[in-house]
Amino acid sequence: MKSLKRYQYERYAVLCRLAYPRVFKQTAFGFDPNGQRIIRNAQGNIMMRVLWNKQREEVVLVIKGSHSVKDWLLNLGFWHKSCKNFGLDYSIHAGFHYLLSQESPPSHRDDQLGLSVFERVLAIIEPRLKHGYRLVITGHSSGGAIGSVIGDYVEHHYPKAIKRIVTFGQPAVGCWRFKKHYRLAHKTYRVCCDLDIVTFMPLIPLAYWHVGKLLWLYNGRIYENTPTFIRLGRSLISWLIRPFSYHLMSKYIRNKDFFDEH
In the prediction, which pLDDT does 249 show? Predict the structure, then answer.
């Protein structure tokens, strides 16, 4: 697996962060003036953005994470649900399954009525994939989780069309069969920051599995593919000793900028 370059990390992290505001100027990031389509959830809220650049023949799918009470409640739907309706032979987290199967209202004059989120994504990206565009998928939290499912489908029907998948703070997605049959482990980068508890969810041992290469940003370093039980152990220890860490002189020195210079 190739490493994730710093400029790639920064680009996808910025795109994920800026996907949350209602207005997003895609031309400021090198995409075409008409190079954006919006995908909404059943409540009409923006859920995904499809961005493209014709010259580079690149499509980027940016997926938001949980950003409403309902979204967070869906994370509690941690039983397995089959993805056969998506043409995939495995099961995933039921809440994430709902995010993909819910109806997506039209946002563009070319959008058809009655399509699910999953179908809406494919309707937008497939014509470009057929013209040789490469696809990058990036998402935060549950957005990263469902992005890996979309990417796996695309890889099956359009081999080598996926350039890479980069997720941030992503929970586990599916059962062992999902991990076994996932086709993009060599192109998937799963970024976890410090003690992010969401990356350990759902908290059901052996029921859900992560895929791809883990990049754990912890204590000023990047750790690759740290086993979950080691990462969880270090996190628990950090949570326990954190109140005492604020007593160290290094903390007082770090906060020197709070004082005026005079």
Answer: 58
* Tens of pLDDT, residues 153-208: 999 999 999 999 999 999 999 999 999 999 999 999 999 988 888 898 888 888 99
Nearest to 118 by CA among 64, 179, 48: 48
- Cβ contact 94:79 at 8 Å: yes
Nearest CA-CA partner of 182 in 216, 135, 150 = 150
Domain that holds residue 66: 6-258
Cβ contact 16:62 at 8 Å: yes
Identify whether 1 is part of a domain.
Answer: no
Q: Model's pTM, two decimal places?
A: 0.88
Please give the Cα distance from 262 to 254 (Å, whole number). Answer: 18
Q: With both helix axes pointing from N to C terminus, report the angle between 142-157 and 117-130 in degrees, rounded to the nearest 10.
A: 50
201 domain residue, yes or no: yes
Beta strands in 15-67 (DSSP E): 36-40, 46-53, 58-63
Q: Exposure of 196 by Cβ count < 10 A (0-12 exposed, 13-18 middle, 19+ buried)?
A: buried
| Cβ proximity of 169 and 65 under 8 Å | yes
Segments in the chain below pLDDT 50: none
- pLDDT number for residue 22: 86
Asked if 140 and 168 touch (Cβ cutoff 8 Å), the reply is yes
Domain membership flag for residue 213: yes
Count of domains observed in the chain: 1
What CATH number does the domain containing 12 carry?
3.40.50.1820
Q: What is the pLDDT of residue 156?
A: 95
Q: Which residues contact 244 (CB under 8 A, 6 or more apart)?
A: none
Q: Beta strand pairing status for 58-63 and 134-140? A: parallel
